[in-house]
Amino acid sequence: MVHETKIRVRYSETDRMGYVYYGHYAQYFEVARTEMLRSLGLTYKQLEDDGILLPVISMDIKYKNPAIYDDLLTIKTTLKKNPLIKIQFTYEVFNQKNELINIGNTTLVFVDAKTRKPRKAPQNFIDSLNNNGSTVET
Amino acid sequence: MVHETKIRVRYSETDRMGYVYYGHYAQYFEVARTEMLRSLGLTYKQLEDDGILLPVISMDIKYKNPAIYDDLLTIKTTLKKNPLIKIQFTYEVFNQKNELINIGNTTLVFVDAKTRKPRKAPQNFIDSLNNNGSTVET
Amino acid sequence: MVHETKIRVRYSETDRMGYVYYGHYAQYFEVARTEMLRSLGLTYKQLEDDGILLPVISMDIKYKNPAIYDDLLTIKTTLKKNPLIKIQFTYEVFNQKNELINIGNTTLVFVDAKTRKPRKAPQNFIDSLNNNGSTVET
Amino acid sequence: MVHETKIRVRYSETDRMGYVYYGHYAQYFEVARTEMLRSLGLTYKQLEDDGILLPVISMDIKYKNPAIYDDLLTIKTTLKKNPLIKIQFTYEVFNQKNELINIGNTTLVFVDAKTRKPRKAPQNFIDSLNNNGSTVET
């Protein structure tokens, strides 16, 4: 399952090297996975309103080329497989010249908002992913 | 009542002009007023744990000179008068050469965390301010 | 001259109160004025590439209501009058329920990138603003 | 070679989950490695003023426990071995209860500011690291 999101680089996201600060890609990844879920009819906000949190438990990024101010980036987000307790996303960031900016991975875990303990992905979440998958396959 | 806080400019806080991004001073002001309160024996965290929030309802800044990467800034924070429902702070930011970087003001309002309605400053908060004041005067 | 920009609130922009952190509106304002200029055929990036910087010299914000995670904000940006050395923008931020979130103002100054001294707005900048104005009026 | 830096969590760095936003640790790591270098008599600013940039080419983080508002974090930074073209740092973040918050790694590359091509670490940089090492050993 793959989804594309476009993000325009803000001035505030550049640093004095003239590049997007290396830490800000975590925010871009967050926007990318949120928009991927929204495209499947799932909003992360609804998930939280239903008492489920999705904190990130690991992230890695390999930086290939700098992004600069006003670049219109495309983030290609891939959901590897169906989530159980954890959910994994891979991100590839490209600029408007189709140059690869970086590649990243995040793993998130479903957590009960009250107990703050891990739990299974909610059934409607899994159903939405599966329905989408079958739509694509048909 | 005046308090001084030192903040080192982080690389992430610069922009491609080489200056501290103009929006980041709001964070510096937040650190400055938090440390002023801490110096009076009041922690903003305790206030929130006691069910009181302090959102900002107005801010203004006049930018005089840019701050740059690795500057060691001094923020001189002034609490204008005893708070009732609102509390006002003034900030003067200087760099290590004692150049004035900017001057800002913020007004915050005491809010009940449950009802999200304005309320009076808690008595222990006012007492701490007054005790500190009288200590200074004596 | 009025322009509207839409911005989706990112998770990273919320704080533990559940609100958009008060300092982040400076970034939203930056996006709003950049997109206003782009709609007139002017890119702020081109301006910098031509050797002209536009640092902010004053900002003020009155916060009316909190914005929360995933809100789709509309920022109504107004350019008060033709710029000479300074340029002034006013911003009104609304959420998707058309509630007023806040009102802000920024003043920016045209600066020569080499000398870092104030200078007049470049002629093509003023022309673009005027051409746009007359198009609207006709 | 190990160095410890303390960082107080700012309100702006929390998110609506009440945790430090997962992307902000990149900033903490930057502060930690900068202060480690400063303790060796090396400032990253001086390095840039000498025409050398140090962009990050990879980062990974494993998140173990959340940090929350007002936590006083200790970042233990380890410089693995002498840099040649790349320099690697490992970070362990602890809160004031000595709970492990996360573990991260970054690799940075020495780059010529003009050509933006990789280059060797400058000799005075390597000398400072070595002198410090021998001082510790003696």
Concise synopsis of the structure shown:
The structure is a homotetramer of 138-residue chains. Helices cover 26% and strands 33% of the residues of chain A.
What does this structure look like?
The structure is a homotetramer of 138-residue chains. Chain A has one domain: Hotdog Thioesterase (Thiol Ester Dehydrase, Chain A). Chain A has 3 helices and 7 strands; from the N terminus they run E-H-H-E-E-E-E-E-E-H. Chain A has helices at residues 25-39, 44-49, 123-137; strands at 2-8, 52-53, 56-63, 72-79, 86-94, 100-109, 111-112. In chain A, the strands form 2 sheets. Chain A has a 5-stranded antiparallel β-sheet, with helices on one face. In chain A, strands 2-7 form a two-stranded antiparallel sheet. In chain A, strand 5 and strand 6 (100-109) form a beta hairpin. Chain A is elongated and about 45 Å long. Chain A binds chain C through residues 8, 10-12, 26-27, 30-31, 34, 43-45, 48, 69-70, and chain C through 8, 10-12, 26-27, 30-31, 34, 43-45, 48, 69-70. Strand 3 (56-63) of chain B pairs antiparallel with strand 3 (56-63) of chain C, so a sheet runs across the interface.
Shape of chain A: elongated
CATH class of chain A: Alpha Beta
How many independent structural domains of chain A?
1
Q: Main interface pair?
A: A-D, 23 and 23 residues
Q: Show unreliable segments of chain A.
A: 134-138
Structural class of chain A: alpha+beta
The run of helices and strands of chain A is EHHEEEEEEH
End-to-end Cα distance of chain A, whole Å, is 14 Å
Oligomer: homotetramer
Average pLDDT for all residues of chain A: 93
Strand segment tally of chain A: 7
* CATH level-two architecture of chain A: Roll
User: What do we call the CATH topology of chain A?
Assistant: Thiol Ester Dehydrase, Chain A
Over the alpha carbons, how many angstroms does the gyration radius of chain A reach?
A: 16 Å
Number of helices of chain A: 3
Fraction of residues of chain A in helices? Answer: 25-40%
Percent of residues in β-strands of chain A: 25-35%
The CATH superfamily of chain A bears the name Hotdog Thioesterase
